[in-house]
Amino acid sequence: MWRAVPVTEEQLRNGINVIPPAARPRVVLRYADTRDLLVSGLVENGSEIAQHAAVLDVPLEKGHVVAFSNNPIWRGETEGSYFLVFNALLNFDHLDAGRKLDAR
Description:
The protein is α+β, with helices and mostly antiparallel strands. It has helices at residues 9-13, 79-90; strands at 26-30, 53-60, 63-68.
């Protein structure tokens, strides 16, 4: 599971490259572990995507960028992936729900 590296004291003193907690990307949805992935279709081995982010929420100024690791509106995707986009559109004003900010 990917997590942000803790900020060191040196980075806090010279914090020009430290992303403020409110602007840090958040993993909203991630792929399952290798043993739990349903491998079908064009995926022969799920180890490349196991435990990687599927949906990211990145705050940007007054809004958000929602990034998908697949193309959820592609004609060949499963019907369930369309709802990832619909959910982001319908809840555009509540994308911070459940977000916990790190103090550092």
